[in-house]
Amino acid sequence: MNPLASISKIKHLETGNFFLLAGPCVVESEEMTFGIAERIVEITNKLQIPYVFKASYRKANRSRIDSFSGIGDEKALDILRRVSEKFDVPVVTDIHNPEEAALAAQYVDILQIPAFLCRQTDLLVAAAKTGKVVNIKKGQFVAPSAMQFAAQKVIDAGNSNVMLTERGTTFGYQDLVVDFRGIPEMRSFGFPVVMDVTHSLQQPNQTTGVTGGRPDLIETISRAAIATGASGLFIETHPNPAKALSDGANMLNLKLLPELLERLLKLHSVIRSF
Questions:
Q1: Number of independent structural domains in the chain
Q2: Is the per-residue pLDDT at 62 higher than 70?
């Protein structure tokens, strides 16, 4: 069973299309968040793609202490709740420690475990106990085969609504590589697998202290993920990535999203025919 089916606000699951988790990296402002959500809802309804709005209410993993981390936890969470209510869509956000799980669960539908924290038992158990869908990102240092144990922690805590997300593997010090063998391997555990397209194109550990990226490869990674059986795509997008307050170097310009999704749906249709 697709865990998204447990969320009443999810739409278009009956189409069999891949689902989409998309939005800005972080809640920058109410106006920006609502504007992005409105546009993506319009696009995904037209294309009949199951959609979950994505934004972090706080960014705990930053390269430098002066990096933007958020506008305030409860203020950002309230914006996410109002996005969900206004546009009638589910919302996903990251949590970083066990104490955040119960708080965030009051506002959103899916709790996301960041890649660096995917082995943290207390965090996984706390997320599980909220009863929300739990999306676990595969650590850059973790083999796909090991993700079954992260998922099992959530299940053993009483929650079977689990998704796994591929987001690339550390390659040297300043790059990531996606091993697409991991998608069918993680699917074999019985969970939907999401491809985090934009984070897999990050170039971390730059000498400036600001992460770089390769957004020119977003469509390449998306196509390969669909071809290898990903159930969903995770894409961070912004109307002006160069001005984004977090992860702008690897985000998709929002104006490019409609045509990208149209092409990906055509590919998905071909893959489903086999």
A1: 1
A2: no
